[in-house]
UniProtKB/TrEMBL annotation:
Its cofactor is Mg(2+). GO terms for biological process: carbohydrate metabolic process; peptidoglycan biosynthetic process; UDP-N-acetylglucosamine biosynthetic process. The active site is at S109 (phosphoserine intermediate). The keyword Cell division does not apply. Residues 379-442 form the Alpha-D-phosphohexomutase C-terminal domain. It comes from Salinibacterium xinjiangense. This is Phosphoglucosamine mutase. One of its GO terms (molecular function) is phosphomannomutase activity. It comes from the Bacteria. The modification Phosphoserine is found at S109. InterPro entries: A-D-PHexomutase_a/b/a-I, A-D-PHexomutase_a/b/a-I/II/III, A-D-PHexomutase_a/b/a-II, A-D-PHexomutase_a/b/a-III, A-D-PHexomutase_C, A-D-PHexomutase_C_sf, A-D-PHexomutase_CS, Alpha-D-phosphohexomutase_SF. It is an enzyme of class 5 (isomerase). Gene3D superfamilies: Alpha-D-Glucose-1,6-Bisphosphate, subunit A, domain 3, Alpha-D-phosphohexomutase, C-terminal domain.
Amino acid sequence: MPRLFGTDGVRGLANGVLTVDLALNLAQAAAVVLGKGRVADGRRASGRRPVAVIARDPRVSGEFIAAAVAAGLASSGVDVYDAGVVPTPALAYLVADFKADLGVMVSASHNPAPDNGIKFFAAGGTKLPDEVEDRIEAMLDQPKLAPKGADVGRIRRFSDAEDRYLVHLLSTLPHRLDGIHVVLDCAHGAAAGVSPQVFTDAGAKVTVIGADPDGININDGVGSTYLGPLSAAVIAHGADIGIAHDGDADRCLAVDADGNTIDGDQIMAILALSMAERGVLNDRALVATVMSNLGLRRAMAANDIRMVETAVGDRYVLEALAAQSLSLGGEQSGHVIMTKFATTGDGILTGLHLAAEMARTGRTIAQLASAMTVYPQVLINVRGVDHHALKSDAMIASAVSTAEEALGDSGRVLLRPSGTEPMVRVMVEAEHQELAEKIAGGLAAVVRERLAL
């Protein structure tokens, strides 16, 4: 049976894969695994029920799924504080700030409105390691907690949740944003309330698009996966920068004044160089995944910044940051983690610090991004193949070696199996698009021939 938890919680079609029964059962299982109650002065607090903070993005199915989660927790003796519609990083911050025992975010991030998901956070607002998720999944078929009378949990509204998060964001800024004109694309998602307000409070001139969520328009032609409307708005309004969030606002991508994309790798380069200059980049190191562009690696090397490489997935970036006590990491997709201020990727926080660097230096976002050359990157997904056999096939290994010799120091090859389906991802970077396409196409053909099912 496939693992229920994916790379970022449990996700799928609402009322299809993700049902009310599953949401209820997951919450009850999480109450057993995570709801251990607060410990005070080394002793379990007498009579203290565990506390959970829950939140959701504005997609319509989140209303009944969050209600099921709250019911599952409360019926297991957990006091629930419902933060309503707030970004995922806000939920993570609130779990830590409120000293809760766990948090639950109902969101499918950048997925379309019919999907939804459940993400769990441990005390301190951190994502769960695989082994803890496995313990929750194993509890689904086990007897649940069933307290009676005064021992059942209560469900309360977390009335100042958004204000707490907003104040926190403002407190992180090294420089105000006066004189910066920002266009924000909130993806008709969870950022629609907080992001425009915090940028305004920080001093920026703000123009907003994608900030009218109706429950079914989240990520629909807007946000970090559809940058066209943001680029057009930046040009039309003569803005200095555009910031795009996804549905739950844990990502940030940007566009410059000419509407050109600034991706997660370029954002990390800008922030790493700024933090290194200001002496706040721990161990002068940046954590990024194997998919990050060769140009990022070269830019960091040129500035004596060490690159730490992880598997794809922000959870692996987070693990490396924690293991080495580092301060900055992220993904090309726009998940950027600043560990001094957040326990997970935070798109609003990232956007604020990008704009702050513009204000601090007096440089445009295009000028800041020019510190990194983006190499052409071609990705081909080869489907219908035995991805488990990839590493053991000698002819594929030989083809990769030949490609690497042809590229030399001016490119990079990466083949990796999908973790969820019979597919191999072939990625090639080179100085020229045509060469990258040629080599990627050739490798894809070898993979398809050798591993076809």
